[in-house]
Specification:
Number of helices of chain B: 14
Low-confidence stretches of chain A: none
Structural class of chain A: alpha/beta
Radius of gyration of chain B: 19 Å
Structural class of chain B: alpha/beta
Number of domains of chain A: 2
CATH class of the largest domain in chain A: Alpha Beta
Distance between the termini of chain B: 9 Å
Largest sheet of chain A: 8 strands, mixed
Order of helices and strands of chain A: HEHEHHHEEHEHEEHEHHHHHEEEHHHHH
Distance between the termini of chain A: 51 Å
Oligomer: heterodimer
Radius of gyration of chain A: 23 Å
Chain lengths: 444, 404
């Protein structure tokens, strides 16, 4: 089977989820683009969108339509060339409508796993539950005569383990998109011990056609992305504990979130990022990683404590943020959760004390104006010089946070999760939208 | 002509503009502009006839029969004759001429003329479909996604080839800078709030044919605008009736209206031949030459059109428009300041209103009421010219003015 034959029948499992819907969008566009090539005239391309709930699938079709419309509007110049022989399509609006129709026509939403039995490729983006994944892979493998290749979006479970337990004989690869898949440029590609080389070749071609940046990661639980993120979380919570000497819990959380957001020039603070991913998801990833890593204890009593109180974060179906460690109103942080009182304390009540404790901080530019600034390196260099010179408590917190982030990066290289420092930096730059990689010279 | 009024040219660039927020509608712009002029002439009772120019409200706003909005402006206009005219982006010029002809035919002493367009109801990519109606629909299929930018990009490409790319692009950038600097002096201009420091550096950005057109970038293009302009076309008798001094009016001393075949491709990509004919006829009918012009408002829907307009008027020889611009002659302190409130690139381009807006700007300049954008009009060069163009050099209206 060549590249296009493989893609003539594809399934996405967990298609209505946050990651699955993004993978569905990117794949449906790639399949439709293939189907519109003159040489593929007459060939059918099918994308099964599978999830457990009909309601969620209806929602995902709406999401798909709105996103494909945006994509079509953006690439109208190319679309006019693609449809140039369609004399009935004259205006941009007609061409755009046709393209949206052509992309959506590729997609077959449904709740039955049987739809996957004819697929050549299975994208799996279901819950981070090894047993569930293995059960589903096994069932598909037993019923699908085409020896399908499995692309798992797992962000923490070793691929070799899934391969062995499901008996896939190397027909699997880790293909880890970042959230949201349609926007984040990064795909972490993880080969299992026995991953077929032709499967790897296909994966790299597919990623390239999706215009993604590929970073290879070794098959060690958590890989590069979560390898950094989870350890960053644990550092943040340890810092909160230290601050409790002088600050209340909500003040400490607010302070560390502010440090890791504004003063580290990141797109969001660490507690906001935990909420974005979901407290439950983070906690689960930690437990999966912990079960695979020796000599290191990866668990957070703080995350488990707030989870027990029902604080989960994550997003509503319209994409807006649910409350987690922090409370949000129209995307802005307005409060911090107090587990003792079981309520959110308004930011106004907290920030005065925190700012006093931080002391006078060097001026800092917002992430947005640094991230794509051509003079980024100079800006960062002189900013971190100021941080190092400053005697304020906030500056020392900032510096040690950045130094720890660097150490995590180096740890990932030393423990052979990442092949090199550059790969670690690329993951943080393109999967987390950081303005600079953790392994840098600024903080030395 | 007297009593000019411009609404704000609304769209990207204006602080008030947010694509997702509700904005004034077609009727609001018509009402504001109409009342603006009526107030200056003493009210609706003095109006004999009404003309409204609009290009594509039928698609942008799903609205036709626009003459019906005159009584909505003022109840005093109910029962009076009113007409709507259309000639793509040359609509405003046609509306003015319709008023002028009524006065010359002595069927009216006072004509209220309004031009209006509200285009931000759709995204630019769909707006391009609508505006493509200014060309022949049978050419649409083979045309660019951004149809008119595509047409003028082809002209720019031909001009590059014939006269050199670098210098031409530098002249485009200078044209853009002049437009924005002028717009910054006019509170109703769409680029009034523009704070870019190095305008020419910004304008020289390489065009990207993959996402837009091959030879023009977005700075080379006029704006997508909502707006209306109004003016009163009045006979000498009418001036007495409304009690306005001649010195506060401009006299129409010459005009021309020229049409070319919409189904034909341009004879020469590097020249605006119909534009040239209209400008020359208008100057001839006024009995003057281009050397007598103190200012001009030209239809710079794209920078390349600005360059070719300078040549078509006769200010510079064929292929010499770029030098003329780069030497500073068209800047506000130059030999002949052009588009003194920013033109279509700086002030804005509410398509059906543009021709009227040109007349309002000239009225203000010649009568000394242009506020911060006022230029000096010398006795040696007391005339002004406006040239309004519909389609790709198809529907042309040129008017020569002088202070009354």
């Amino acid at each position: 089977m060549n590249y296009e034959e493989r893609l003539q029948n594809v399934s996405v499992l967990g298609a209505a989820g946050k990651m699955g819907s993004g993978i569905l969008l990117l794949t449906s566009v790639e399949l439709a683009d293939l189907s519109l090539k003159p040489e593929n005239k007459g060939k059918s391309f099918v994308l099964n969108a599978i999830d457990v709930s009909d309601e969620a699938l209806t929602g995902v079709m709406r999401y798909l339509k709105s996103q494909v419309l945006k994509i079509a509007e953006k690439k109208i110049v190319a679309l006019r060339a693609i449809y140039k022989n369609r004399q009935d399509l004259i205006e941009n609006s007609e061409i755009i409508d046709q393209y949206v129709f052509d992309v959506l026509s590729v997609v077959r939403p449904g709740t039955r796993l049987e739809a996957t039995y004819e697929s050549g490729i299975i994208f799996e983006a279901i819950r981070e539950d090894p047993a569930l994944k293995v059960r589903i892979y096994t069932q598909i493998k037993e019923n699908n005569p085409n020896h399908p290749w499995f692309f798992t979006n797992t962000s923490s479970i070793p691929i070799s383990e899934l391969d062995e337990k499901a008996g896939l004989g190397g027909s699997i690869i880790g293909f880890h998109f970042y959230n949201p898949p349609a926007i984040q440029k990064l795909v972490e590609v993880i080969k299992a011990k026995n991953t077929l080389s032709e499967l790897e070749d296909f994966a790299l071609t597919f990623a390239k056609n999706l215009r993604k940046i590929v970073v290879p990661s070794n098959d060690i639980a958590g890989f590069i992305g979560n390898g950094h993120f989870m350890r960053d979380i644990l550092y943040a919570t340890s810092q909160v504990d230290l601050l409790l000497k002088d600050l209340s819990f909500v003040e400490a959380v607010y302070a560390i979130n502010k440090i890791s957001h504004e003063y580290l020039i990141r797109p969001m603070g660490i507690f906001q990022l935990i909420d974005y991913v979901g407290v439950d998801v983070c906690s689960y990833i930690l437990s999966v990683m912990n079960s695979h890593l020796e000599n290191e204890e990866l668990s957070s009593t703080l995350l488990n404590k707030v989870l027990d109180l029902g604080v989960k974060g994550g997003q509503y179906s319209d994409g807006s943020q649910k409350d987690g460690f922090l409370k949000y109103e129209k995307g802005k942080i307005t409060g911090v959760f107090d587990p003792g009182k079981k309520e959110y304390i308004p930011v106004q009540v907290i920030q005065g004390k925190v700012e006093e404790k931080m002391g006078i901080m060097p001026p800092v530019l917002p992430w947005k104006s640094v991230v794509s600034n051509p003079a980024k390196e100079e800006i960062l260099k002189s900013y971190f010089m100021e941080i190092k010179k400053s005697a304020s408590f906030g500056a020392s917190l900032t510096l040690s946070y950045a130094v720890n982030s660097r150490q995590i990066g180096l740890h990932l290289v030393n423990t052979k999760v990442a092949f090199n420092e550059k790969d670690v930096n690329t993951v943080l730059l393109t999967g987390f939208f950081h303005a600079y990689g953790p392994v840098n010279e600024y903080v030395l | 002509m007297v009593a000019g009024y411009n609404t704000i040219s609304m769209g990207t660039g204006r602080k008030e503009f947010h694509p997702k927020k509700e904005r004034p509608g077609l009727e609001d712009y018509i009402k504001e502009a109409g009342q603006g002029t009526l107030k200056q002439i003493g009210g609706a009772r003095y109006v004999d006839e009404c003309v409204i120019g609009n290009f594509m409200a039928s698609r942008f706003n799903k609205q036709a029969n626009l003459a019906g909005f005159f009584p909505f402006i003022d109840e005093g206009l109910k029962g009076k004759p009113a007409i709507r005219v259309e000639g793509a982006c040359g609509t405003g010029g046609l509306a003015l001429l319709t008023g002028i002809k009524s006065v010359l035919a002595e069927t009216a002493e006072v004509v209220l003329v309004i031009g209006v367009e509200v285009q931000n109801t759709v995204k630019a990519i769909y707006g391009a479909d609508i505006l493509a109606g200014a060309g022949w629909f049978k050419d649409r299929k083979e045309g660019h996604a951004y149809f008119f930018p595509g047409q003028f990009s082809d002209r720019a490409g031909a001009y590059f080839e014939k006269y050199g790319r670098d210098k031409t692009r530098k002249a485009f950038a200078r044209w853009y800078r002049n437009a924005i600097e002028n717009a910054r002096l006019c509170p109703t201009a769409q680029e009034y709030n523009n704070t870019t420091k190095d305008l020419e550096a910004c304008a020289i950005t390489e065009p990207n044919g993959k996402s837009f057109v091959d030879h023009l970038n977005v700075f080379d293009c006029s704006k997508v605008s909502d707006g209306a302009s109004a003016i009163a076309v009045v006979s000498e008798e009418g001036l007495k009736r409304i009690g306005i001094d001649k010195r506060d009016a401009v006299e129409i001393v010459g005009w021309s209206q020229v049409e070319d075949d919409i189904t034909r491709k341009p004879m020469e990509q590097t020249e605006l031949t119909t534009f040239r004919l209209a400008a020359h006829e208008a100057l001839e009918s006024a009995g003057i030459s281009a050397d007598h012009l103190g200012t001009a408002e030209v239809h710079d829907c794209f920078t390349i059109a600005g360059v070719m307009a300078v040549e078509a008027i006769g200010l510079a020889g064929i292929g010499k428009g770029t030098d003329f611009i780069l030497e500073g002659n068209t800047a506000r302190d130059g030999k002949i300041p052009i588009n003194t409130t920013g033109g279509l690139i700086g002030w804005g381009h509410p398509t059906g209103a543009t021709g009227v807006h040109q007349a309002v700007t000239i009225l203000e300049q010649l009568t000394g009421k242009a506020g911060k954008s006022q230029i000096q009009i010398t006795p040696e060069r007391p005339y002004a010219l406006s040239v309004n163009m519909g389609g790709n050099d198809k529907t042309l209206v040129a008017i020569v003015y002088k202070r009354g």
